[in-house]
Amino acid sequence: MIDFSREGDIIHVMKVECLARNTINALQIADTLSAKGVGLIFHDLGNVDINSDVGE
Fold this sequence. Notes:
The protein is of the alpha+beta class. The chain has one helix at residues 23-35; strands at residues 10-13, 39-42, 48-49.
């Protein structure tokens, strides 16, 4: 998924544990996607968007 995502895409994740094995892994994935200009929204964390001021 990370390899195929493009700038402007937004990835919706229902549960963090479906994306990553642990918190550090989730942060690494979020940083990778953010660097590509890809949005990431975690619905189980109150719809936190990594590209918003709150999500960062």
